[in-house]
Structure formats: C-alpha cells, structure tokens
C-alpha cells in the first residue's frame, strides 16, 4: 500500500492534523486563561457547542465565515456569562455550575438544530483559501500549511497573543495573581472579581472560537454533540500545560496527530480495528496524564470563590 | 485475645451473612429470569386475529435528517399509511433511554400495530408487545412470536453489490473508497457486497475500506477526516454509510472536484449543495414490508414469520440519478437478475475482518 502514500495523501494528512488540533488549541487557551485566574470552567464542552452553533447558524445565513467566527466568539462569551454571574460574582460551586453549563449547552444546541436545521442543507462549504506566496509552493508542506483559510492564521495570532499577554504583561500578571494568591492581588489594590470577570469573558470568547472553528473549518457543518468530548480533553491539556501556551499548542497538535493517524493507517491497508482507532487519542491523553501527573500544576486558588476579608 | 477472637467471629458472621444474602439474591434473580425465559410465546394466542388496522405507529431513535436509517423508516411508514389509507403516528427522536415507555404510549394512543425502528428497541418491543398484546415489528435480531413480534432483516449485501457495479463503471482513478461510521452488521454486509460488485466488473480496481470508529454514527468531523483521506489516496467514488457522520462524508466529497458519492438507506439529495455528486444510493424501502405486516396483522398471521428486505422484493433498490448511464443500468439489471435467480450470491459479512477478507480477495 506504499503506493497510496503519495504527496497528496501526506498533504491531506498534515492538513487534517491541523484541522483537528486548532479547535482544541483555541478551547484550551480559553480554559487556560480562566484557570490562571482561578476559575475552573467545567462548562467548556457546553460553551464550545454554543460557539459552534452560533458560528454555524450565522455562516449558514450570511455565507460569511468571518462573521461566523465572530458570532462563535460572542456565543462563547454569552455561554460563559453563567460562570461569570454564578461563580465569580455569587461564589457558587464552580464544579456544579460548570457541569450545568455543559448540559445546558448540549441541550440547547441540539434542540435548536433539530428544530431549525435538521431537515435542510447544512453544508457550509469551504472558507476562501489564503495562499501565502512562495511558501504555498513548497511540496507537501506548502499546500497543507500555507494554503489554509485566513481564519487559521488569525486563530494562530490569537493563540500567540494570548500567550504573550498572559506571560509578559501586567494584565497577565494580574490574571495569574487572581489564581495564585487572590488576597495578594486584593492587597495590592487590584480587584479580584474584576480580573476574574475579564478572564472568564475572554475565556468564553476563545472557547467559543474553538467551537466555531470546529463547525466552520474542521467539519464544515454542525451536528448535535459535535464536540464529542473535546472540551474535557481541553481541560486535561490545560492542567498539563502549567499555564504555558506553547505546551497547549504542542499537546493540541499531538492530539490532532492521534485523531488523523487512525483513518490514515486504515486507508494505507494496516489492519487496525475501529475500537483501537477511537481509543488512540484517549490512550495518549491518559498516558500523558500518567507520565506528567507529577509535573502538572494548577493555580492554588483554582476552583475557589474569593470573598474579600474571608479567611 | 478474647476481644480479637470476638471481632474475628463477628467478621466471619458478617461475611457469612453477606454471602448468604448475595446467594439468595442470585437465586431469586435466576428464578425471575427463568420465569420470563420459561414462557412459551408460541402458545400464547394471537390477540389481533381478525383485527382491522386503522392506525399504526413508528417509533425511531432519531429523525429523517440522518439521511439514512431513520429517514427510511419514517418515509416507509408514510408510504404504507398512504397505500392502505390508514392513520400513522410518527415518533422520531425517541432516543434510546425510554423506548419501552414510548412504545407503550403510542399503543395507548390508539396504534394497533407498532414499528420499533431500531435494533436497540428489540427487548423493549418484545416486552411491550407482550404486556399490551399488540403486534410490534422489531429490527435485525430477535424471535418471531405469533401475534406479537416479527423481525425484519435486510440482505444489505445484495444492494451493496449493485452499488459496487455502479461505482466500478464510474471510477476513472481505479480506486474506490468505503467509509463506515460504526461496527454495524448491515454495513459489514453492504461493504462486502459492494466490494464484490466492484470486482465483478474489474478485479484490478483498488477498494479501500476505513471506519470512523466502533459506534461513531453521528461523528461528522471524524467522517469528514476519514473521507478526505480516502480521496487523498486516490478514491474518486466514495460509498459512505453512517447516519449523522454522513454530513462529514458529504462535506469532504463536495469539496473534492470530480468525486462521486454513493449513499445508503436514504436519499441524501436534500443535504447536498450540488446533487450531481450523488452517483446513487442503496435505498432501503420499508413501505412494502409495513404494508405486508399490517395485512398479516389483519389476517392473524403476524409473527408466524419474519420479513426481509431484498433486491428481489424491491426492498433494496438503487436511487435513480443522471449519473447512472444506460450502460450502468443495464449491468445493474443483469446483476439484479443474477441475484434473484441465485446465480450471484454476495457475501453477507458480519465483521470488519470478514469485510477486509472480501476486499483482499479481489473477487477471487
């Protein structure tokens, strides 16, 4: 079957790895921002679905992928409002509220899809390609990497910007302080609630973007429960990445690789069972957890509400 | 020492009590199971003999947007109702968790015959049919029970064989892809039959087989990924089987110029921006089966035998499209005649390994 391993096949394989990695990367960056501020968002799966559906419906209606991505981000922010109000402002249990948000997101998007879109054409087609001169002409890698939608590059810029702002700016320092030792931030004159609010809203935008990327670019359509557990994998990746966006990016690409390798091996003629194919990403996640469990570090104030003066 | 031995004795007594309780539970459970299993369904009288059916119902786990299994059942029920001039209650999106309740509710609402349109509804259907003394048609597996239960089975390999001929006569790259979204016996049958149909035209054609996962019926993203890789490997005709995953297959096919798609069970035309990419679909026509089942209910013979969807009884047909040329249609008709007269017997594969063996045999 080596004759099947053509340049075109490798190109599609690389493009598939990226297409699978990007939604996870965006969602994990969003989760990272929230967790660095001390807010554990277990509702990420539901928020991703809300972002995916809003992005899908706006793109389907307008035909504009940029508007769809923007709508996905807005949808993510709206989805995270429950986390903002109930967790940050009212100090309710983050785990309970997060799980509720996941269930709400799954339910609302499924009902809306079945009511509005289930019996009609839901194909979004492909977004316009953005070909980078010269680089796009590199064999194999060029078409896979440098002939992507411009949305891909914008997403990459967002991820880099998030990493920069989190690690190199006073704003990022405030975010991390809100998760590391909120009382110190408070004593220094910062508002923990305000900083956490910013973080939760920005987190929602990234998670929503991840959902929209999944629907608009990776799948080109929306189906109920399209995230298929991706949000929970984003939580694992966030905890393993110790707040470093570069590690989020690397582990997301590794995930994309594990998703893409299954069908590729089958097409190339290797006798791999469907069960093994589906297990590969999760086996890798579990192995990573086992190997790096000792090095995973979460902010000390993660999951706890902050009340000024409370001991 | 006294304290220790008392504690040890107490622990032993506790363990004995637990073992005794567990044993009693196991015995009572076995007794219950034996009681159910010991029933003699055939001895129960048919509760419906001589009944005139004026209303029936179909309960399906999802809706027609899957372009497949659920769509075929719902369309078939509507067709049967129209043909017989009776009422039908369609219950799509019934899910999997509460089948027994839903089946009971449609009977309570007046349905004199029910189609439990999912292989996963078999146990619930049998239970409800017995409790409500109402005939229920179940799918794929189970025992026929006179007056109560009949099973529908599909010779999917026959439809796959015909589609394989159409694919082989359409491909220009000499590479054809099969993608399934789950380990489903009907899809194994159809895949094996499809590969044999391809090889019957030209054994040199390369058939590639890939699965999205063991039960990824609705994984559109995974479906798109798998299909893109088949196309990248050179396949210019894709035979896709997969409920909601079909959305992903269609995205990949529509994005690849020159690639044709073969659907299964239902009509995917409404899900395509460009319907010309559709080569054909292996349609499962449940209408005649439902009509026959209702007539059997009225005659009091329901459950004395099961029902089959075959090429011979028009339960399996290929969807007509402009891409099926006269030459292709002639070859399909010839193969259809061979299947009906028994000179062509496609392999009813029941596992992925059997499908892969058929693919590897290249028609030998």
Question: What are the SSEs and their pairings?
Answer:
The complex is a heterodimer of chains A (311) and B (364).
Chain A: H1 7-36, H2 44-62, H3 65-89, H4 94-116, H5 141-145, H6 150-168, H7 170-180, H8 182-187, H9 192-219, H10 230-241, H11 245-267, H12 274-292
Chain B: H1 2-37, E1 55-59, H2 69-84, E2 87-91, H3 99-108, E3 113-116, H4 122-132, E4 136-139, E5 149-154, H5 156-168, E6 175-180, H6 185-201, E7 206-211, H7 220-232, E8 237-241, H8 246-254, E9 260-265, E10 278-284, H9 287-299, E11 307-309, E12 316-318, H10 326-341, H11 352-361
Parallel strand pairs in B: 1-2, 1-3, 3-4, 4-5, 5-11, 6-7, 6-8, 8-9, 9-10
Antiparallel strand pairs in B: 10-12
Count up the helices of chain A.
12
Annotation field: number of helices of chain B: 11
Instruction: Please report the distance between the alpha carbons of the first and last residues of chain B.
Output: 79 Å
Low-confidence runs of chain A (pLDDT<50, min 5 residues)?
none
The CATH topology of chain A is: ABC transporter involved in vitamin B12 uptake, BtuC
* Largest sheet composition of chain B: 6 strands, parallel
Name the structural class of chain A: mainly alpha
- How many beta-strand segments of chain A? 0
CATH superfamily of the largest domain in chain B: Response regulator
Number of domains of chain A: 1
What is the total domain count of chain B? 2
Report low-confidence residues of chain B grouped into runs of 5 or more. 1-8, 26-46
Question: What's the architecture of chain A, going by CATH?
Answer: Orthogonal Bundle
SSE order of chain A in H/E notation? Answer: HHHHHHHHHHHH
Shape of chain B: globular
Give the SSE string of chain B: HEHEHEHEEHEHEHEHEEHEEHH
| Quaternary structure type | heterodimer
What would CATH call the class of the largest domain in chain B? Alpha Beta
Helix fraction of chain B, binned, reads 40-55%
Membrane topology (chain A): Multi-pass membrane protein
Subcellular location (chain A): Cell membrane
Organism (chain A): Microterricola pindariensis
Protein name (chain A): ABC transporter permease
């Amino acid at each position: 079957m080596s004759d099947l391993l053509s340049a075109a096949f490798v190109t599609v394989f690389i493009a598939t790895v990226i297409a699978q990695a990007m939604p996870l990367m965006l969602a994990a960056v969003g989760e990272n921002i929230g967790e660095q501020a001390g807010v554990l968002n277990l509702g990420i799966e539901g928020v991703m679905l809300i972002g995916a559906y809003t992005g899908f419906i706006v793109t389907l209606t307008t035909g504009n992928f940029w508007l769809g991505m923007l709508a996905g981000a807005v949808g993510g922010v709206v989805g995270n409002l429950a986390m903002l109000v109930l967790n940050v402002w009212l100090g309710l249990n983050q785990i309970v509220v997060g799980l509720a948000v996941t269930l709400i997101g799954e339910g609302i998007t499924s009902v809306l899809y079945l009511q509005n879109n289930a019996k009609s054409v839901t194909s979004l087609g492909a977004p316009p390609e953005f070909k980078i001169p010269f680089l796009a002409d590199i064999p194999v890698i060029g078409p896979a990497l440098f002939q992507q939608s411009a949305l891909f590059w914008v997403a990459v810029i967002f991820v880099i910007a998030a990493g920069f702002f989190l690690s190199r700016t006073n704003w990022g320092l405030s975010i991390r302080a809100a998760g590391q030792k909120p009382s110190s931030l408070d004593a220094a004159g910062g508002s923990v609630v305000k900083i956490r609010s910013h973080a939760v809203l920005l987190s929602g935008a990234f998670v929503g973007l991840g959902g929209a990327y999944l629907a608009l670019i990776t799948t080109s359509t929306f189906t109920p429960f399209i995230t298929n557990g991706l949000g929970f994998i984003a939580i694992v990746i966030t905890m393993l990445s110790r707040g470093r966006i570069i590690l989020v990016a690397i582990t997301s690409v590794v995930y994309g690789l594990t998703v893409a390798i299954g069908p590729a091996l089958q097409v190339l003629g290797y006798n791999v069972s469907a069960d093994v194919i589906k297990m590969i990403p999760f086996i890798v996640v579990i192995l990573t957890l086992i190997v790096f469990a000792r090095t995973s570090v979460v902010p000390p104030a993660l999951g706890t509400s902050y009340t000024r003066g409370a001991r | 020492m006294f304290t220790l031995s008392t504690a040890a004795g107490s622990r032993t007594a506790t363990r004995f009590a637990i073992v005794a309780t567990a044993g009693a539970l196991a015995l009572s459970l076995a007794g219950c199971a034996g009681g159910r299993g010991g029933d003699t369904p055939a001895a129960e009288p048919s509760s419906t003999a001589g009944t005139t059916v004026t209303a029936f119902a179909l309960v399906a786990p999802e809706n027609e947007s899957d372009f497949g299994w659920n769509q075929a059942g719902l369309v078939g029920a509507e067709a049967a109702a129209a043909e017989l001039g009776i009422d039908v209650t369609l219950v799509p999106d019934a899910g999997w968790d509460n089948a027994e309740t839903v089946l009971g509710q449609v009977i309570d609402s007046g349905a004199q015959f029910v189609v439990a349109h999912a292989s996963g509804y078999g146990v619930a259907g049998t239970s409800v049919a017995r409790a409500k003394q109402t005939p229920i048609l179940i799918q794929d597996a189970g025992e026929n029970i006179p007056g109560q239960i009949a099973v529908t089975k599909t010779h999917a390999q026959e439809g796959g064989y015909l589609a394989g001929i159409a694919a082989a006569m359409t491909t220009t790259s000499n590479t054809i892809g099969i993608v399934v979204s789950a380990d489903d016996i009907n899809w194994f049958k159809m895949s094996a039959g499809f590969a044999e149909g391809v090889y019957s035209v030209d054994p040199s054609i390369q058939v590639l087989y890939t699965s999205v996962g063991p039960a990824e019926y609705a994984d559109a993203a995974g479906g798109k990924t798998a299909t893109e890789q088949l196309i990248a490997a050179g396949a210019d005709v894709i035979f896709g089987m997969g409920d909601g995953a079909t959305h992903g297959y269609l995205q990949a096919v529509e994005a690849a110029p020159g690639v044709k798609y073969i659907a299964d069970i239902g009509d995917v035309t409404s899900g395509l921006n460009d319907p010309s990419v559709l080569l054909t679909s292996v349609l499962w026509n449940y209408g005649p089966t439902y009509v026959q089942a209702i007539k059997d209910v009225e005659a009091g013979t329901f459950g004395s035998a099961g029902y089959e969807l075959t090429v011979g009884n028009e339960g399996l047909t290929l969807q007509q499209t402009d891409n099926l040329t006269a030459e292709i249609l002639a070859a399909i008709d010839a193969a259809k005649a061979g299947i009906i007269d028994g000179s062509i017997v496609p392999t009813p594969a029941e596992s992925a390994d059997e499908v892969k063996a058929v693919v590897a045999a290249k028609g030998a």
